[in-house]
Amino acid sequence: MSTSPSRVYAARLVGLPIFDPQGDQVGKVRDLVVAIRSEGSQPRVLGLVAEVFGRRRIFVPMTRVTNIDSGQVYTTGLLNMRRFEQRPTETLVVGQLFDRTVTVKTTGVTGTIYDVAMEQARTRDWVLSRIAVQEPAKGLRRRGQTHVAEWAEVEGLSRREPTQAATQLIHALNELRPADAASVIHDLPLERRTAVVAALTDERLADVLEELPEEDQVEILGYLEGERAADVLEEMDPDDAADLIAELPPERAEALLLLMEPEEAEDVKRLMSYVENTAGAMMTSEPVILGPDATIADALAHVRNPDLTPALAALVYVCRPPLETPTGRFLGVAHIQRLLREPPSTLVAGALDDSMENLRVEATIDEVAAHLATYNLVAAPVVDEDGHLLGAVTVDDLLDHMLPENWRDRAVRHG
Question: Per the database record, which ranges form the CBS domain (predicted)?
C-alpha cells in the first residue's frame, strides 16, 4: 500500500473502478464499511462495498486492497463473490454517516457530515481520521460554512438519528447514472431509503424507479402519499408507469390514475389495455414524432434531447396530424444516420424509409425480436390497422420483457 495516498476521502472514492492484478475491472466502489466502537477512538475501515455483476454487492476486505490512487482501486483479485450483508456492528460511511448531525467540541460548531477521510495508521490498518462538516445555511447564503475536524474532536458520531436528513447522500446519488443510483438505494437501510426518496425530485425519483426491481418500485410507491406518487408516475415513461401500476392493488392503482393528469393517465390506461408480452404492452407511446413539413434540422434538434434513450433517438416517426399517439396517418421513419447525411434545410419527409413492414399491437415477443433482427433495428413503429402510429418498441423494451423477472438483481454491467 506504499503507493497509496496518505489520506483518502470517501466521496472521491465512491464510484472508482476496482481492478484485479491483471488490469481487468471487477467492479466499482459503492461504500466503506467501518466499525465504530466509541467516539473517542478512530474507527477501523473494515473494507469496501463493491458492486459487481450489476446489482450484486460484495464485501472487499481492506486486506485485499493493494493500492488506491486518484482514479482506481487495485485488489489482490481474490474476492469472495457472496452478497454483502451488513452486520449490526458495522456502519456504512456514505449510506449512514453522511448527513448525520454532529458537533465539533473545540468550537461548538454543529452541522452535518458531508465527507469523511481515511488514513493508514502505524499498524497498517485504515482508520477514519477526519470529518468534513457543513453548517446550516444562514441568511442569503445557499450553503453553510464547512469545517474539517479530527475524529476525536467531533461528538454525535455514534448516535443514530431517526430523522436523519439526506442532503449529502442525495448529492452523491445525483452524480450517478440512474441505474447506479438505483443500486445504492436498493441496499440502503429502510429509514435511510425513506429519507432519500422524500428528498429526491419527482423527475429523479422517476428515473431511479425505472431501474429498480418491481418489488422495490411497489414498496417505494407504497409510502408516497397519493399526490406525490401520481406526480412521480407522470414523470416516468408511460410504458414503465403502466407496468408499475399493474403491480399495485386495484384500489391503489385506480386512485393514482384518478390523481394523474387526464392525458397522462389515458396514455397509461391504453398501454395497460394491451395483452401482456405483446408489442402493444411493451411499447412507449412517446417516441419522436414530427409532421411531414418538419425539416431535417427540426428532427436533429429533437433527437438531441438528452432525456431520450439512444434507441428512441435512433428514429424519427413522421405522421399526419395529430402528432400525439394515436396519430394521424403514419408515413414512415427517418433513421438518424440518414438525417446526418442530408442538408438541414430539406424536409424530413424526403428522407423516409417506408420499405419495411410495421409491427401490430398483437405481435408477440418472438415476432418483435425477429422484426428488429430482420431489419437491423434498435426501435420499430407499432401501427394499428387504420395506419395510425400507436407507439414504438425499442430493443431495451424488448430485453426488459425477455429477461427473467429478477434480471435487475443479476444483470451484468461493465464499467
Answer: 352-410
Task: Kindly state whether residues 362 and 396 are assigned to the same domain.
Answer: yes
Same domain assignment for residues 355 and 374: yes
CATH number for the domain including 297?
Answer: 3.10.580.10
What's the rounded Cα separation, in Å, for the pair 10 and 119? 11
> Measured at the alpha carbon of residue 87, what is the angle toward residues 91 and 213, in degrees to the nearest 5?
90
pLDDT in tens, 230-269: 999 999 999 999 999 999 999 999 999 999 999 999 999 9
300 is in which domain, residue-wise? 289-401
In a domain, 407, yes or no: no
- Partnered with residue 32 across adjacent β-strands are 48
What DSSP string describes 267-329? HHHHHHTSPTTBHHHH-BS---EE-TT-BHHHHHHHHT-TTS-TTGGGEEEEESSP-SSS-SB
The chain-wide mean pLDDT, for the chain, equals 88
Give the pLDDT score at 2: 42
pLDDT per residue over 39-85, tens digit each?
778 999 999 999 887 668 899 999 999 999 878 999 997 888 888 88
CA gap 279, 383 in Å, rounded: 10
Q: Give the number of other CB atoms < 10 A from CB of residue 335.
A: 16
Amino acid at 59: F
Query: 415: pLDDT confidence band, cut at 50, 70 and 90?
Result: very low
The amino acid present at 49, given as its one-letter code, is V
Which CA distances in Å does 191 have to 96, 166, 180, 182, 187?
10, 10, 20, 16, 11
Judgement on whether residues 306 and 260 belong to the same structural domain of the protein? no
Distance between CA atoms of residues 202 and 204, nearest Å: 6
- The continuous run of DSSP H or E covering 126 comes out as strand 126-134
**Among all chains, which residue has been given the C-alpha cell 408477440?**
364
Cell of 114: 458531508
CA–CA separation, 380 and 384 (whole Å): 13
Same domain, 319 and 356: yes
Return the biggest CA–CA distance within the chain.
Answer: 77
Please tell me the total count of domains within the chain: 4
